């Protein structure tokens, strides 16, 4: 195309956007963003801001920004794409619906769960209307709805969405496709959180093998499966196995993300959890502090991940008998998580138990009794 048409031609620009999306799927984010931005700039000049190809390129920009963890920018680009697709009666079209779904994704990763849920419900209805009940795009939305539930501790409800999505993807792509493997990963995660380790680990091991075959050993989808296998190993006291999974996960993210990304904080926090389980609270403390700093920079001080990190840090400090410091972290984490998650989620129960111990050690029997009672009744 370049030889025949030249760099400034709109057809070349459209292909650059497609190449950018491929690079994004390969986790080559610098290359992906450069190609998409270049294509978008040319399309605006060659075809005008209202052309459908500009809307598609704007949506592509939102996708690569989301993949890079730049969620505020991704939200702005996705909102622009939604508005562009809605012009001239395009609202409700397949492209408009896909852009809405991408906007929901960006809000989800930014921690705006209520906004993401509302958008995803709209996307689910529209996608079923356009594509029918058994289409991969329907499965994508079901997974997104399940993820929002799972993040807030509603694992059984999340499992139901994941099972529906996996059935659709297996019918459409087959059992060995990488998108099917991603559905196996999230379903395996939900099972592990419910202590159903045998079934969960089988799914996760299968998913890891598929992702490595398709994407190679260094890719975010591989790291995602490793994360959940590490969690399963940790919960079964297989500490060496858990450490190996979380270490490799962090190494993948260090290669993939040139800019700081919250997933690097997840890997660090999970590695700290292994140290906590081994009783190495000093090393755990340092890792938790690094993870929290990452979450605050990439997600914000009030994000759910930041709250969970502070609860974990509080426990490491409690076990070192640094009660005043522990109370400060545990209470802050408790308040962040309480505002966003189910009252019965495990992190809240554990935070209440730790707060009871901390207040008792600090001589505040009344507050200790309050949190001990809340821990026992799940309120």
Helix content: over 70%
Low-confidence stretches: none
Number of strands: 0
* Beta-strand percentage range: under 5%
Query: In angstroms, what separates the terminal alpha carbons?
Result: 64 Å
Largest beta sheet, briefly?
A: none
Give the overall average pLDDT. 93
Count of helical regions: 19
Shape: elongated
Structural class: mainly alpha
Order of helices and strands: HHHHHHHHHHHHHHHHHHH
Oligomer status: single chain
Overall radius of gyration: 22 Å
How does this structure look, described?
With 379 residues, the protein is mainly alpha-helical. The chain is 80% helix and 0% strand. It has 19 helices and no strands. It has helices at residues 2-5, 10-25, 29-47, 52-67, 71-86, 94-109, 113-131, 136-151, 155-173, 178-193, 197-215, 220-235, 239-256, 262-278, 281-298, 304-318, 323-338, 346-361, 365-377. Helix 6 packs antiparallel against helix 7 (113-131). It is elongated, with a radius of gyration of 22 Å. The protein starts with a helix and ends with a helix.
